[in-house]
Protein 1
Amino acid sequence: PENWTLYGHHMTIVFNDGSEAKQLVANGLDAILGFTQQLRVDTIGISDEAIAFGVSGYKTQNEHAHITIATAPGVKPVKSNEIVNWLPIDGFYVTGTINKFEKK
């Protein structure tokens, strides 16, 4: 939609909030950093605040593994975690590299 912010550049596997549980998961991912992974996109989620592509066959900390595509003006991409309407689409594949990003 017009004036929405476009994303589409990542899928969060785990958001390490510093808790012991999240830290353990994040540390476990260190062994696969730099690996390339193919992901199947087969749903689209739409709300008043965000649009995302749903990814199947990959486990993340989110209820629905997804790639945020766009958010409404002033809305942060984390709002895509709250999408409840997921519709099937003709599937396609995307490829990405597993990376770690840290707040500075």
Note: The radius of gyration is 14 Å.
Protein 2
Amino acid sequence: MAERLHRPLRVAQLIATKPDDPARGSAVFMHPEDARQRLLTDGELAWVYGPRRHELATVHYDDALPRGDVVLRDVVGASPSEIVRVIKPDLDSRGRPPAYA
């Protein structure tokens, strides 16, 4: 199952916005089935792991995209045709034990 959750995706397009654009901020547009396989819902934050860095981005469903492709908006560290992984953040685990233990 972990293999399905972390299957790589190809960057079909990269959108860079300008300060006066109405829609700004990091976002990943993906086919709804690709998002569901990763347990992601529309409007949720997800990690986008690119070849040079990783960044949080808002997930948006886009039925027009082919499965396996994503469109990134304002995500630094990825270019068109590169491979990225979109992963749901693990908010239940903590990286260190509690101070009172």
Note: The mean pLDDT is 89.
Protein 3
Amino acid sequence: DQVPAVVEPLCAVFRRQLKAENQKYTPERARVLDAVIQIEGLFDAEQLLASLESSGYRVSKATVYRTIKLMQDAGILQRVLAGGDQPRYQLIYGTRPNDLIVRVDTDETISIDVPELIELRDRVCAELGLRASAHKLQIYATKA
């Protein structure tokens, strides 16, 4: 029997990270965070900016890029290493891990669910007296 982890609200996690870096939780950063929460799957900064604009919000490109970096530092987002010109990101905080296979020949990403990996991660951490907060598995593959 495992006790479910209590997940802190994302805005609280983000505010704490910003405070640690002597930054403010501005309305623009709040909008970027809200937009990220609404996106399903992988996204790049341009898609995030387009999502904000289509919602009627005016946020500068520089603010979007800086906020993405701050959210990575806070453990809210992770960068997904894939081909293409733009780095892509995914929401990781408070979600089940989104492990991926990255097709380097087609730049396609395929989400995979490997429950045994979560068990292995938790067991390895427990043996070291630790509790896992997240993990990332990316397999790079091409057609056989």
Note: Strands lie at 43-44, 77-80, 88-91, 99-103, 108-112, 138-141.
Protein 4
Amino acid sequence: MKKIKIVAVPFLFILFLASCASVNVLADYDSQTDFKVYKSYAFYKTGIDRAQISDLDKKRILRAIETEMDSIGFVKSEKPDLLISIFTNERVEVDVYSPAWGYGWGWGWGWGWGWPGYYNPYWGPGYYGNNVSTRTEGSLYIDLIDAAKKELVWQGRGVGTLNNTKNIQKKEKRIRDFVSKIMQQFPPEATAEN
């Protein structure tokens, strides 16, 4: 029995860590758009101001987008070809795990036999319960809008677990990872072959 606990607990912990680290990405775009004509970008302030996150997280996201756009040859411009906007939402996921071996605390009535021939009701503690954990699942949408036509031409979405951490470096890394995985889908011509 002890071997099962030692083997099972680390396995569950590894599964939990693996599920928290992933970002699911989906991209959609206008198939009639020639993305090769776009060379410059700017951030669409009106859209970004509506995002329901802190200004510090907005800055982190925008810096990460700048890094990704620069890495694929785009330049930031006062007269851009593309406007970039972001949108976020989040939901809290509650996970309840019932251990197979039955641990937990509770109080209640119990019945049992004492000395032979004597009936013995007793009141006392017992251990059984569930483990409950919460995690925040967030979605980050990155919209690319044709600046001349004012039409959405590409949208990337990343969904993953957000780690509420006090460690700013970890938080910034998580945001960079989110943005990087989303922006790997742009431009569509580069990803269509995959």
Note: The two ends are 47 Å apart (CA to CA).
